[in-house]
Structures are given as C-alpha cells and as structure tokens.
Amino acid sequence: MRIADSRVSLKKNFILERIILLLIFLIFPFFSFLISSFLLMKGIDKRYNIFISALFWGLFGYLFIPEIMMDITRHYEVFDQLIYISSFSDFFIWTTASKKPDYLMYFICWILGRFGFGKQSLGFVSAFVFYYALYYLALKISDILRKKYHSKNIDPIVFVILPFLALVSLYWFSGIRQCNAIILFLLALICYYDGSRTKLLFFCSLTTLLHFSMWPFVLFLIVAIYLPPRLIYLISFCLLLISPFFIVIVQELSEIFGFIGGFGEIMSGMIDAYIFSLEGDNVLYGGAALRWYMQWAIFFVSIPLWFFANKRFKYLDNEFYKIHYFYLLVLAYMFFSLFGSLQIFTRALDLLKFLFFMYTFYVLVHIPFKNIYKAPLYLFILIITLAGFFSIFVGKEYKTFYPKLVYMNVYQILQTTIDHTLYWRW
After folding, report:
1. 3-state SS class at 127
2. Looking at the whole model, is its pTM more than 0.85?
3. pLDDT tens-place string over residues 161-213
4. What is the pLDDT of residues 295-325, one digit of tens each?
5. DSSP codes joined into one string, 190-225
6. How far apart are CA 117 and CA 354, in angstroms?
7. Phi/psi-derived region of residue 286, left when phi > 0, alpha when psi is between -120 and 50, beta in every other case
8. How far apart are CA 177 and CA 259, in angstroms?
9. CA 255/CA 273 separation, integer angstroms
10. Quick check: helix, strand or coil at residue 424?
C-alpha cells in the first residue's frame, strides 16, 4: 500500500513540476528555456523539456529578423496573398497556377491565415517543428551512445545536440521547406532503425511534399532497403562513372520533364533555375563560410570512415547495415553532383552533416576502435562544434535575434510585430 501511495505521490509531483515549468514559460520564456536545457543535460524528463525548448525556439522564429533576401521574406509575401483566399477550391486553383511545387507549405500558410494568425506565425511553426525534430533526433541518437557512455552528471544527449546546434545557422529554419524536409527525413531513418515502417512511410511522404530535392534520397533509401549489396555497389559505381556527364544528363532530364507538361514543366523550370541559371549557387555564399567549410570537411572524412566501417561489417546489426549502404549512395550522389551543380551538392551536404553524426556515433559504439583512430575523430567533432558556434558571430547570425525576447513574456511576444524596417543586409 505504501509503495502504491509513493507512486501516486511521485506522479503528482511530476505533473506539478511540468505545470510549474509551463507557467514559467508563459511568464519568462527565456528563463524556462535555460531551465529545460539544464534538465536535458541532467537527463530529467527529456521529452517534455525538448517540447519546452522547441516552444522557445518557436518564439525565436516568431520574432525572427530576416536578412532582406532570405527565403522567409518571400514566404511572407505568399502568406499575404493566401490570407485573402476563403475557399479551398480557390486555394486549389491558386496552387495550380504556382510556378513552384511547394503545395504543403502553401497549405500550411493558408490554414494559418484561415485561423486568423499573422505571417510571423509561419516562423513560429517552422522553428518549432524544426527544433523539436532536431532535439528528438539527438535524443534517439543519444540512446545509441548510452550503450557505451555512462555518467550521473551529464546525459549523452548533450554530446549530440551541441554539434547539431553548432552546424545549424540561426536562420536555417527560415528556409522552411528544405530544413524541415531534411530533419523529417532523418527521423524517417531513425524510424526505420527502430523498426517502425508506418512512421517511415509517413515521414518520407512529408519530406517529399516539403521539398522536391529530397526525392533522390527517398529513392536511395528504398534502394538500400530492398536491393542486395552487389546492386548497390553497382549503382554507386555508375554514379561515379557518369559524374563527368552530369550536365548532359540533367539537360536531358529537363527536356523530358518539359515535354511531359504540367508538373513536369514545373520540375524542368526548377532544374533550369538551380543548375543552369546559377540562381541557387549565388545564395550559397551568404553568412559564415567557416561553417560551410566544416561541412565540406565532413564530406571528406565520411569517405574513409565508410570504408573503415565496411571492413568491419560484421559488427553492424541488421537494421543499421541498410543505413550503411544508404550512406554509400549519398556519398556517390554527392560526388556525381559535384561535377555540375554546387547547389545540389550543398543540399546533399545539409543532409550529410546530420547523417554523419548518426553514423559516426553508431560506429564508435559498435565497432572496436584503436585510440590512434578514435582520438582524431573526437577531435574533429570538437573542432566542428566550436567552429559552428564561432560562426554565429562571423556570419552575423546574431542579427536575426530580437533582443527583447530575453525578458518578454509570451503575451508581449505575440503582440510584437517585426516590421520591414528591421530587416537587414549581409
């Protein structure tokens, strides 16, 4: 009886602590973010503290101050157009006339407008979804680390979330489509590793609806899951072999899509814009180059790391060896795209920077490593983490932060409008 009463008492205290933290969030969001971060570090009620942390990042997105050429400024313009559309049939007609296949984002904008929210709510939704998924991904990867790392003072999630936050610029979530598509696809990989095929299908569907550039990765995942290793090696080798002919191949694809018409014409236009007009490449050089170079370093380190793991294939479990082959396909695709489109390569690089840590932490835990190999890898992770946080200042990312967020309450935040006059330039 006493044991049952004790459990009830603990549950009541647990609920009370959650309510108190939520009240603190409403009154002083930044302080609640600091508390939840500390509790995460200690491994206390991690899922709830991830939720509170993501809510704060959502408020950061709500008060986000964009650079004048960032994608989110264009999305705000779309939002302002959609709020005047009242019926779903009119919305459907509007989307069919759109030159870009961003239908899911359009639908989110339209729904938010129909419920009376302003365009800044788009920043809140994107930041909340992105950072919640990022923290959750870090949590799942830390479960792999937990098999080897044990400490009463610091939870393993710290060693995952810090590099993740370092690799993500403060404005990356403002792209809305690609950033969330990538992080949701990584959740699909985790779902596959955990054995949840339904969630795998759900997240893969979402990621392709959010951004067309994710289609190759979904295809590679299907190949890695269902095809035998010999065919995967063959496909990877073919990608390397035909890489010098990238431009010719893409030109033919563009013509084929254009001939199909309808959605094909949209895809053809996207290919022309991102590859042949250099529209995409021109936007790659905003912000801190240091973080970008660190991502390139991840690409080059990934190659010998994959071969090292492949030689010790027997240590990989049945679920992860499919991800192991997917990693090979991604590297081959990146080498293929490097010959013709820096934009496509960089989009793959944005996926690889997270995939690298998922892959590396698994390898460190499951495959025997000599210290002579392990120490440089840990050092590389440390350098990437430090360089990422340094990039916040080098790339002027701090300009996106609304200073009053530090002491405002939720009501005051929601009443604040970020005017165009606050937008800035690189």
Report:
1. helix
2. yes
3. 999 998 888 899 988 888 999 999 999 999 998 888 899 999 999 999 888 88
4. 889 999 999 999 999 988 888 887 888 999 9
5. HHHHHT-HHHHHHHHHHHHHH-GGGHHHHHHHHHHH
6. 32
7. beta
8. 27
9. 14
10. strand
